[in-house]
TrEMBL record, chains A, B, C, D, E, F:
One of its GO terms (molecular function) is isomerase activity. It holds the Pfam family Tautomerase. Residues 2-60 form the 4-oxalocrotonate tautomerase-like domain. It comes from the Bacteria. This is Tautomerase. The lineage of its organism: Bacteria, Pseudomonadati, Aquificota, Aquificia, Aquificales. The active site is at residue 2.
């Protein structure tokens, strides 16, 4: 049943996405016995111009 | 007042989006008396390379 | 694969939740051929003191 | 620690995003003593064809 | 049309929530001409045991 | 900069939350070089009466 949303600033490679999905799914199975087939992991790659930290856009830092 | 977020893997046609928005809004009005004018429905079409299930990216399945 | 998040201000009865989950799942199956067993619907009942509209908390209106 | 997600229908200019990020970060610092360096603000510009109100897509209104 | 979700670790007072809702709504009106009556602000007060930073739960720091 | 939201149906123990936060933070550091101090992980424990799958509430299954 878990639904996991991973938001990162900027782009990830396909390989990185594969490892993130695999790693989170395995972690939730081992730690909380959540079946992989019921675990959704959705990755949002947010444009650096759309992510602010410290009052500034990351694209301006 | 309802805010509904619908995340699907892959693309929807405009007609499908129209039916989803109309259907959810009508459902919330009938079931919970939520006024259509206050009901927001936001649809996110997620790239299959960004959605994992069973530890794999959908684009790899 | 759909993940749907329904946020409403205030409480719903169990029966209302059942109808909302059933209705949204059926709608996505009919409109976009999404299999019910892969459709997650998560309902958030938000306290009226935590929902603002027009610059005011709903609990103050 | 705050994480703020701002969803708007349609596009914003870079300048508008800068003002929104700056304004929200300052507000949370003044009102709730949240340190700017720990405050994330993520802006989602949603296509008007993906945002429904009153049972209609904004792009159809 | 904006929908803003503010997640903070720990509790806020009612007065703080009022100021956050008012401030964000005014900001979006001034910066992006978003009508207050269409602006939703939802505040989530997250338990410190459910928020992790640097690999630790805030409640453990 | 990552913000990760983990939604599970039902309750987790504190120890499970610690392992989930630690594991996800370490994974994002190793896979995508994301600094732990900038990685937020927020866990939502959703009541089984508020999570639907296959058109049914989990609490009814």
């Amino acid at each position: 049943m878990p639904y996991v949303n991973v938001k990162v600033a900027g782009k990830l490679t396909k390989e990185q996405k594969e490892k993130i999905v695999e790693g989170i799914t395995k972690l939730l199975e081992e730690v909380a016995n959540k079946p992989p087939q019921s675990t959704y992991v959705v990755i949002d790659e947010v444009d650096r111009e759309n992510w602010g930290k410290g009052g500034k856009l990351l694209s301006d830092l």
